[in-house]
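Sequence and structure are kept together here, with a separate record for every protein. An example record follows, reproduced without changes.
>
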Amino acid sequence: FNAEDYPERAMAALAEMHAQVGDLEIEDGRATRGVLVRHLVMPGMRDDSKRCLEFLARRLSSGTFVNAILLTGSERFLLG
């Protein structure tokens, strides 16, 4: 297993999923179709998270729903 190419493989997989099902669709408060991305915000890796979010907005859709999971110490990411 080689994690060096993980970002490229993850982006390719997300692009394919989005091509197949599109943006998240919600009906009566429930997701019925589409992509919802869960992103783990790691302490000290702000630039990686920014690149990920930029990819989602620019390459997939600015309407991409993201569930960000903040690890302890990541709060500073949100505050700048």
Observations:
- DSSP finds three helices and four strands in the chain.
